[in-house]
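Shipment paperwork, digital attachment
Item: protein structure file
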Amino acid sequence: MSGQFLKRHHYGLRWKVETYISGLKRTTGSTLNSRNPRALLKEAAFKVLAYAFNR
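Attachment content:
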């Protein structure tokens, strides 16, 4: 595979996502407390927003 192919397909960006999720889980905890699927989504979104604004 060429470097151009890898760049075009965003190869190597996974580590950035993994680092972000690791920091998010360390800061806000790795569990969600809600039981309702809609509430789970809201809780997860709130945690991501809070983490993003705090960075």
